[in-house]
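tool=predict chain=A
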Amino acid sequence: MPGKAALLQKHDDDVVIVSALRTAITRGKKGGFKDTQPEEFLAAVLKAVYTSVKLDPKYIGDIAVGNVLPAGGGAAAARMAALYAGIPHTTPLVTLNR
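tool=predict ok
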């Protein structure tokens, strides 16, 4: 199959997902994280992702953050978390609201 073979060829500009991680879950507004800000969770997750694979954050090419009903679309909180996690301000970031 020429179509499948073409899809499986490796290229220098291929998108590579090196890790995926999610935050812990507790009861909403009552659990152990009730006083924790979303930016704190996200910063810890972002840092854990790139440190677990020993990746220098300057090589991160793009960040996509999924969230549900954040204030202002979540873009400001996601950017603050990325900066706090040590990711350069030049790294593109997008938030996705389900």
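Residues 48 and 54 are 10 Å apart (CA to CA). The longest helix spans residues 38-52.
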